[in-house]
């Protein structure tokens, strides 16, 4: 067989080469409530990200049997994070206009939109080697990141808006925590001071009661019994032997939900 024909036959028999890519990512958050009169927007943009398998010389290749280890090469193109203060909103546009505006807001090579960047557009590559043989001198995973430049910027207005946004989210979390104790609107209209006073008392009492209850022997016993019931239900579910008497246990078991302390972290 002619050498060129042999190479052509080998290439047709090889599996297809796959190189996944992600292009034109733009995630944006707009806020006009945290700082009244000063709307701002926070966004993340990415022009392109790709990952490909390579040989030992970092050339794209389909690897069927890597003796020294598996090589991966990732390419990052114009990753950026912006925090625009006093920025106009992009909401309210139809789909076609929104696609154009969001695409135009993505930083890329030769095009830098007018954003207040917290992380300036950064491009680079990452090399990852997953070694099969590990010893004292060879790590399991060896990663190398190469970027052209990393630039972080934060001005006074961005700092002000960021603090206001965090305070607003904290306020919403506190409201959600004590929402069940809030008096109905009818009681507030009848006697606002008494209704709010009862609301504060009930909220504090519930927090103190819950804190002491979690360190009581009765609560430990309840958690122990719930755990045993959960284990039995999981066994029956895995074996497919859930009957009527087993189903009757499910409504009595509490749903797992985060504690109040987790909402404040």
Could you tell me the radius of gyration in angstroms? 29 Å
H and E order:
HEEEHEEHHHHHH
Structural class: alpha+beta
Count of distinct structural domains:
2
Q: Mean of the pLDDT scores?
A: 82
- Give the helix tally: 8
Per DSSP, what share of the residues sits in E-state strands of 2 or more residues? 15-25%
Count of individual beta strands: 5
Strand order of the largest sheet: 1-2-3-4-5
* Low-confidence residue ranges: 1-16, 256-265
* Alpha carbon gap, first and last residue: 71 Å
Topology overview:
Blueprint: H1 3-13, E1 21-31, E2 40-54, E3 70-85, H2 95-104, E4 117-130, E5 141-147, H3 156-177, H4 185-190, H5 192-213, H6 217-239, H7 244-247, H8 260-263
Antiparallel strand pairs: 1-2, 2-3, 3-4, 4-5
What report would you give on this structure?
- The protein is α+β, with helices and mostly antiparallel strands and 265 residues long.
- It folds into two domains: 13-161, no CATH class; 214-265.
- It is built from eight helices and five strands, in the order αβββαββαααααα.
- It is flat.
- Mean pLDDT is 82; it is low at 1-16 and 256-265.
Offer a quick outline of the entry.
With 265 residues, this protein is of the alpha+beta class. 38% of the residues lie in helices and 24% in strands.
């Amino acid at each position: 067989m002619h050498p060129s024909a042999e190479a052509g036959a080998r290439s047709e028999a090889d599996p297809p080469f796959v190189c996944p890519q992600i292009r034109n990512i733009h995630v944006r958050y707009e806020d006009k409530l945290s700082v009244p009169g000063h709307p701002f927007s926070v966004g993340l943009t990415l022009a392109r990200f790709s990952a490909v398998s390579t040989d030992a010389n970092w050339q794209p290749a389909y690897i069927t049997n890597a003796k020294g280890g598996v090589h991966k090469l990732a390419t990052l193109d114009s990753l950026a994070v912006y925090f625009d203060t006093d920025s106009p909103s992009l909401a309210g546009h139809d789909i076609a206009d929104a696609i154009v505006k969001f695409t135009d807001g993505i930083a890329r090579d030769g095009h830098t939109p007018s954003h207040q960047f917290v992380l300036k557009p950064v491009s680079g590559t990452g090399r990852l080697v997953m070694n099969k043989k590990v010893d004292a001198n060879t790590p399991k995973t060896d990663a190398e990141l190469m970027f052209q430049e990393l630039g972080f910027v934060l001005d006074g207005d961005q700092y002000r808006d960021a603090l206001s946004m965090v305070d607003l989210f904290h306020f919403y979390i506190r409201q959600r925590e004590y929402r069940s104790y809030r008096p109905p609107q009818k009681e507030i209209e009848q006697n606002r001071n008494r209704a709010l006073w009862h609301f504060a008392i009930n909220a504090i009492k519930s927090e103190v009661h819950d804190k002491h209850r979690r360190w009581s022997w009765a609560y430990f016993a309840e958690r122990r019994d719930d755990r045993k019931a959960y284990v039995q239900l999981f066994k029956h579910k895995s074996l497919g032997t859930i009957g009527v008497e087993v189903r009757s246990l499910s409504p009595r078991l509490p749903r797992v939900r985060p504690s109040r302390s987790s909402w404040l972290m």
